[in-house]
Specification:
Elements lengths: L1 E8 L7 E7 L2 E9 L2 E6 L13 E3 L2 E3 L6 E3 L5 E3 L7 E2 L1 E4 L2 E7 L1
Antiparallel strand pairs: 1-11, 2-3, 3-4, 4-9, 5-6, 6-7, 7-8, 10-11
Bound molecules: FE2/S2 (inorganic) cluster.
FE2/S2 (inorganic) cluster (FES) binds next to loops.
Length: about 100
């Protein structure tokens, strides 16, 4: 059963940007896509572990800052550059706060 953990408040991440979130042993890239839409994936590119949180957001995908693989944030899988997927984290918004679900 996943555990919801508070990670930040809405408004702390500008629209179409990502932020690195550390929660226990997990490092997450949390993205604000605008209109209260947030998506979260593991902050390690499936190519060579590039920090996806620092990438360029395009629609519901992000370009890795290292070698520009494009990762679909809804599926966690690469859609250009190569093949591979990263873990996704469910996101919940409540009372202006952002929660992520972690498997314990
Ligand atoms: S590490 Fe992300 S594209 Fe190479």
């Amino acid at each position: 059963m996943p555990t919801w953990r508070l990670v930040t408040e809405c408004g702390t991440i500008p629209v179409r940007e990502g932020r690195r979130v550390i929660c226990g042993k997990e490092e997450v890239a949390l993205f604000n896509l605008g209109a209260d839409a947030y998506l979260a994936v593991e902050n390690r590119c499936p190519h060579r572990q590039g920090p996806l949180a620092d990438g360029i957001v395009a629609g519901t995908s992000v370009y890795c800052p290292l070698h520009s693989w494009r990762i679909n944030l809804e599926t966690g899988c690469a859609i250009s550059g190569g093949e591979g997927c990263v873990k996704r984290y469910p996101v919940k918004i409540a009372d202006g706060k952002i929660y992520l679900a972690f498997d314990d």
